[in-house]
Design goal:
This protein has one helix at about 5-10; strands spanning about 20-25, 25-30, 40, 45. The protein is an alpha+beta fold.
Length: about 55
Amino acid sequence: MPLVELSLLDILACPACHAPLKEQDTELLCTDQNCGLAYPVRDGIPVLLVDEARRPA
């Protein structure tokens, strides 16, 4: 079961760099290699706030 609806995932972008996002586990990951922020999804709602994002390891 997807975290967010596929139609919604098609239009979402990373707020920091505007790259597309992809689902991984319980997060949406920025696909830009230089950015790579991971945004949480809570109760099916993506939290697309840079302050809430996890920095890449």
